[in-house]
Write a structure and sequence with these properties.
Oligomer: single chain
CATH architecture of the largest domain: Orthogonal Bundle
Number of domains: 2
Shape: elongated
Radius of gyration: 25 Å
Largest sheet: none
Distance between the termini: 70 Å
């Protein structure tokens, strides 16, 4: 199948397929006598894998490492598990950071209700977020 057909079947743009080829996520397909790329059905499974991996939060670099392992004949399950655990830990850390930021913002908003704008000085710029002295 040609690139347009593969793109339509996979639900991606033809430029996306070309980009994945340049990045090494997809192998370069053979070309017909007319110079057009000629894809077999396996490209659809690879594109579905890439989209699924991106939905799980994996980067293209991470997906490339998984695909490389598979191309080398290795079963990448342990590597995928490790990547997913790292993602989950990163998300949990970020959630903790966001929860702390939420508390800080709620405190500043509460503080803003207690302060009088007339008491704000030029040196503090805005006493709602200026450090307390």
């Amino acid at each position: 199948m040609r690139i347009g057909e593969a793109a339509e079947a996979a639900g991606v743009a033809a430029q996306t397929i070309r980009f994945y080829e340049r990045r090494g996520l997809l192998p370069q397909p053979p070309r017909g006598p007319n110079g057009y790329r000629d894809y077999d059905a396996s490209v659809l499974a690879q594109l579905a894998f890439i989209r699924s991996g991106q939905s799980a939060g994996l980067t293209l670099v991470e997906l490339s490492s998984i695909l490389d392992q598979r191309r080398e004949g290795a079963v990448p399950c342990a590597h995928v598990h490790s990547l997913l655990m790292t993602k989950l830990n990163d998300i949990r850390t970020r959630q903790d950071e966001l929860a702390a930021l939420e508390r800080d913002l709620e405190g500043l908003i509460s503080r803003s209700h207690r302060l009088d704008p007339a008491d704000c000085t030029d040196s503090k710029i805005c006493h709602i977020i200026a450090p307390e002295t």
